[in-house]
Amino acid sequence: MRIASTSSAVAALSAAVALVLLPVAPAAAQSNAPPPGTWQFQVTPYLWAAGISGRIGLDLKSGVPVEVTLSDMLLDLQMAGMVEFEGHKDRWGFVFDGMYVNLGKTTSLENDEVEVKFDMTQQIYEFAGAYRVSEGKVPVDLILGARGYFLSDGLKLTGPNDAVSASGSKSWVDGYVGARVRAQLSERWFVAGYADVGAGGSNLSWQALAGVSYNFSKTVSGMLGYRYLSIDYETKGFLYDVAMGGPYLGLGIRF
Q1: Which terminal residue of the chain, N or C, has fewer Cβ atoms less than 10 Å from its own Cβ?
Q2: Which is more confident, 111 or 140?
Q3: pLDDT for 20 beyond 50
Q4: Interval 59-64 mean pLDDT
Q5: Which long-range contacts (CB under 8 A, 24 or more apart) does 215-220 make?
């Protein structure tokens, strides 16, 4: 992580937490369809590892350039938990996704005379409805939902003579519309693609995902792929314009 000042450090750390691990798009293909008129559910713990680039700051005209690598995130990560829950009945379905991440870092400035302690918590909750608009060999699902972002952070600077503390929070909600497709390659292998675009709290947000899944059994499947997410959010006194891309890994359990 490259930082030039205290404000740059805070901005970069904020970016890392805000986007280190976000909800994966609605779960990939499932081969064991339930009998008509019955529900099938799937719970999927997952991880998303990605690099981040963009601008974050208090100055809407410029902000602070941010570049965060996966190794930076792993060094500063204190706690994280991500899970997705999805249900389907015939053509209809829903997806709920929840994520919690806590990041902390202690560093020194000005020839080690000033100690900087930073702590930030990020929560993201997503709920969407799904409708299968096309069956056939390559089923197509239409996705409509909302995603809420909740950030809180604290900063403490300790110098030779005194200490200064500050804290704050930010939250917003985006509505979005998307679509996903999937195709069966063999009895156990599937490929899937997903994309959505949204706005509301953000000026614009969009993401794209492509991956494969493998059914280990009738109830357990593994998922691997690549995801890209872009968020352009600004309000009075705050700029958050970032993009992230990287691989994701999940384990789905159906019941």
Answers
A1: C
A2: 140
A3: no
A4: 60
A5: 215/31, 215/32, 215/187, 215/188, 215/190, 216/188, 218/32, 218/254, 219/32, 219/253, 219/254, 219/255, 220/251, 220/252, 220/253, 220/254
How many separate domains does the chain show? 1
- Mean pLDDT computed over 220-231: 92
Query: Is 1 among the domain residues?
Result: no
Domain that holds residue 47: 6-254
CATH code of the domain covering residue 119: 2.40.128
Q: List Cβ neighbours of 245 (8 Å cut-off, separation of 6 or more).
A: 50, 51, 226, 227, 228, 229
Tens-place pLDDT, residues 36-47: 889 999 999 998
Q: Are 26 and 43 a contacting pair, CB within 8 Å?
A: no
Cβ atoms of 13 and 97 closer than 8 Å: no
Q: What token pair was written down for 129?
A: 């409805």
